[in-house]
Every structure is written in C-alpha cells, then in structure tokens.
Specification:
The chain has 102 residues and is mostly helical. It has two helices and two strands; from the N terminus they run ααββ. A hairpin with a 6-residue loop joins strand 1 and strand 2. The structure holds zinc ion. Zinc ion binds next to loops.
C-alpha cells in the first residue's frame, strides 16, 4: 500500500495523502482545515512548541518512534532546516521542491 508523509511533522506512514480532511496520526494536523490560513511551517512550530507529542489515541506511535529523527528525515526530503526551539523552522528553498541535488 502506498504511504504518504506529513509535510508538517514528517510522519511517513500516512495511508492517505495530506489533503482532503485526512488527519495525521502523529501531529494531528487536519489537512484542509488546520492548514487553511496557517502554513505547514506554522503548524510544525506549534506542534514542536507543544513538545512534539504523538497525536492519535487510536493509532499508537510506531515502536522506537522519535520525533526528532522523523523531522530530520523530513528536512532531508524537503530540503528545509528544522531545529527545535524558537524559530524552529527555516525554509532554505521552496519547501515543495525535493532535495535531489546536493
Ligand atoms: Zn503530521
């Protein structure tokens, strides 16, 4: 089954694309609702400032789940820099552009 990743937190086991009122089990972003009027960067910052908690009550976090490792993977995928703390996220280039060239 094809899986998708969440552009907010980097969770990469979404069963449905991050749109159309799907909800990320990890950060709880409700796509098509939370991301209307808020950028994914803002939503990520909000999630990080809450301590990057696992969201879903019905779907448990994968074993050995690690929010920071997941964010590292996201930053590789999207070529963005993600650091915890204030000003958590800085976009280096268009966040939708996959990081193909080094
Ligand atoms: Zn997410």
């Amino acid at each position: 089954m094809k899986q998708y990743y969440c552009p907010v937190c980097g969770y990469d086991e979404l069963d449905e694309p991050p749109s159309n009122h799907n909800i990320c089990s990890c950060c709880g972003t409700h796509f098509g609702y939370h991301d209307v009027g808020h950028s994914w960067i803002e939503l990520r910052d909000t999630w990080l400032l809450k301590g990057a908690p696992w969201f879903s009550k019905s779907r448990p976090a994968p074993s050995a789940w690690n929010a920071l490792a997941q964010l590292q993977k996201l930053s590789d995928l999207e070529n963005i820099r993600v650091t915890a703390g204030k000003e958590t996220t800085r976009v280096k280039i268009d966040a939708r552009q996959p990081a193909l060239a080094a």
